[in-house]
Predict the 3D structure of the following.
Amino acid sequence: MKRYIFLILTLLIIPTAQAYDLEKDVVEFKLPNGMRWLLVERHRAPVFSGIVMIRAGGADESPGKTGIAHMFEHMAFKGSSKLGTRDFAKEKPILEEIERAGDELTKESQKERPDEQKVKDLTAKLKALQEEAAKYQIKNEVWEVMGRNGAADLNAYTSKDATAYHSSMPINRLEMWMDVISQMVADPVYREFYTERSVILEERRGGIENDPDGKMSELILETAFQNGPYHWPVIGSAKDVAGLTIADAREFHGKFYVAPNMVGVLVGDFKIGEAKHLIKKYFGAIPSSKPVSQDKNYGNEGGREKRFGFDAEPASAVAYHKPTLPDPSEFVFDVIDVLLCSGPTSRLEKRLVYDEKVAREVSCSDSYPGSRLNNLMLIWMEPNRPHGPDELVTKVQEELERIKKEPITDEELLRVRTKVTATMLYALERNMGLAMSLAEFETVFNDWRLIVKYPKLIDQVTKEDIMNLARKYFPKDKMIEIIRVREPKK
Amino acid sequence: MKKFPDMSLRAQRSNLMKSVGLPRPFQGLAMTFSAILILTTILIGCSPSPKDEIGRMEKVPMPKFTEPTVDSGVLPNGIRYYLLEDHQLPIAQMNIITKTGSIYEPADKLGLAKLLGIVLRTGGTKNMTPEDVDRAFDNMAAEAGIGLGSEMGEAGIKVLSKDREKALSLFFDLLFAPRFDLKRTELGKIKIIEALKREDDYPEQVVGREFKKLVYGDSSPWARRPTNESVRKLTIDDLKKFHEKYFVPSNMIVAAAGDFDKASFIELLKKFTQDVPNHQVDFPKVPPVELKFPSQEKRIARPLTQSYIEAGHLGIKRHNPDKYALEIMDTILGAPLFKSRLMEDIRSNRGLAYTIASDFGWGTDYGLFNIYVDTKSQTENQVIDLIRAHLTRMKEKGDVTEAELDFAKKAVLNKLIFEFDNSFKIVTSRARYFFYGYPDNYWHIYRDSIEKVTLEDVKRVSREYLHPEGLSIAIVGPK
């Protein structure tokens, strides 16, 4: 766990700083349907930040339907049976026809040799139907209502682990936030699905096809994870996305957007009682069916290498497979992450960037690409010319060997502890930072209190733990290596 | 188990999180002084909504709110300060603004300002080696940064409040007693040259750079870029001269907030700055931007599956009183909310782009008005035609509706309260007002001026300031 731009924490154990007791500030509230809420009053300004997070992400997709979690997230912004429509009773039958035509068109287009006339006819039919439906629709009404009422950072994101919808608003719009966000997650209407599919394909072109880092991260996943849902990126494969249908989105929503899978967090200038009342009113009716997701770890082999060409400067990545929580080694990995990659005195940054000047950037992530399943310790580097990407990999290897052989110094251990506590404290400052972190811990680990315990757990990590872990998880022959070299495109 | 994605890691930026909105290149623009500004009261929704429920909720009034009082003053040496105590968390933050930057670089020393920022931060102090400074900051978990932009230098530090005296002492030494370490200077040059090279790998950055050059001209201080050659030739002596000229107390503004006592903080400021040599800075004359609107296009051929397009022309100067009406016009046209004409037409209706947004900017000289979009190569021409058509419509048709005006004003005004949700934000805004020549109560002026914008104003400024016939268009994409 390292430089969380937004992350969290509390319970200062730095001796002279006064402690901030987060545990005391958080009020837990569970609805009868199983949805969990965490509420923190903060009265600095008449605003609040709110987030609803669903334990549904890329990890819940199956091959052939990759990208559906993210596709659904886009659809949530298209409104509900109340938002985004002038007359839902009249709009609904047209939407049903659109779905049938869109289905047929998708099926035909996905064929190896599509019938061109049929594709053309169906496209025209779909277009006509969409124009018909548009008569009853109010474009982007979710954005309009929220925007008009002062929503700041209204957005959503999908990761491999979860999907989140969030916004900060002036405090007099708390009920509006409840109303709009609850409709988005509980009553989605699949408007403009096929246009949005094109938008996402556009997003994919920008984020992966034309972006050297996007391409590289896709290849890291593909190479490291031969099995299971960490094999593909959140946005999904182009082929799968092009074949997604409304039925897929509806099925995904029905399965995973159930109350026991959902966590809400509010931080701001409200009274707990008032917030609870509104939560009951707006989120109480979400179905409480049991979540179906059963996380399961797949066998994935290390010791693989992938080199690829891209019309861009070179880069390299080194990765090792590692377990996730509840395996206690997680905290040791967190220490190693800071030790290697946080600040100009951290081992890799000091050696590669400052002393030897061979890299312009080194960064680490010790839970790539997510935390629900066993994941990767990943080190990402960009060489300075004339040094090459392979040279960096060799040097990282040497540093990992050093960790296996020599205990880290007392100064390093103390520095790591100070940094972990301080960076978390820095992140607490913003309402949204706190809200997101509480939501992430509760959604992914089912335990927001882990935040409170975290500095202590880091303090318990010993020099021996670090050496033992490095020996166990970083054997040379298990290294995964991804190298990007410049290859001009024609 | 990092539970909030680390956006500093490229891999995560690109692939781990996928969002529905906030186009990447435009996220930062909220900070161009327009949106940064503020408000105390909030408009109460008064337009009838088609939905009774929503309409009812829009009538809930804002509770009474008193702005926190910022302490400000000027030290005998000319340093201006804005301070706010906030004891919620045991941390302290400070930002120092210096009037300096790349527009003041001599034409044969491009890159000097950027290099100075890096060397001040990483090059040690008279008393400490760079390595010792790194260790001192890292051991305190202090986050410190120094950077010089085109007309403003910023030096910021965030630290646990118990360490503030130690950290400030060291931080002021970086600014006033730098070591200009030779090795770190060489490293700084490598960093800049490598970054220049890598910029070419990201089409959205290339298009931004080329658009600026197209509008201002290659050699304009507002658009020119350092080259490998110009950076290699820079000397420590160049750095020293530039530093000596601008980094003096009379040319600096301090903004600080957090867990400290104001009186003792002022004492610290005095202690760390009173013996620093001082003078009034004589700023070099920056050639003015010539106001013209040529129709021109520049294409950078790249074998991509998308075209990255930036289109626009010169904007206005910062103190132009029409800026408020233009801000509303821009919100209606394409500001990065989904409810804009460009977003609705080009993304929502036609699925032609993931990112499309406009920004009507102002600056010390003429700012930039630009529209950014990326689209698959096959639809490049279609998208450019649509942009031109929207601009022409805005300029000539005068068909902005009351509903559009109402939405735009509320969207701008109702968000202003967020200027007060963070103490450090409050003091840095105040420091910026002063830097840009606004009065202390500028946010009131801003709010009142936005409230007063009428439909006629929007139509008039659209006619006067939009030039669809004089567009500069930069494109990165397949030939």
